[in-house]
Design brief:
Distance between the termini: 99 Å
Mean pLDDT: 88
Structural class: mainly alpha
Number of helices: 2
Order of helices and strands: HH
Radius of gyration: 29 Å
Helix content: over 70%
Largest sheet: none
Shape: rod-shaped
Length: 61
C-alpha cells in the first residue's frame, strides 16, 4: 500500500491544475465581457444623434 500517497498526490495535482484552469478561463471571460461592454458604450456614444434645433426658433424665423 505504498502507492496510495502517490495516487492521492497525483489526484491533488490534477484537481489543482483543473481548478487553476477554470479560474483562468473565468477571469478571461469576465475581462472580455467588460471590454465588450465598454466598446458597446463607446459605439453608442458615437452614434448618438445630434440634438435637433428647437422648433420654436425655426418657426420664429
Amino acid at each position: 500500500m505504498t502507492h496510495v500517497p502517490f495516487l492521492i498526490a497525483a489526484y491533488a495535482v490534477f484537481v489543482l491544475v483543473l481548478g487553476s484552469d477554470a479560474l483562468g478561463s473565468w477571469l478571461r471571460v469576465r475581462r472580455a465581457r467588460t471590454q465588450a461592454l465598454r466598446r458597446q458604450q463607446r459605439l453608442q456614444a458615437r452614434t448618438r444623434p445630434q440634438p435637433l434645433p428647437a422648433l420654436d426658433t425655426e418657426l420664429g424665423r
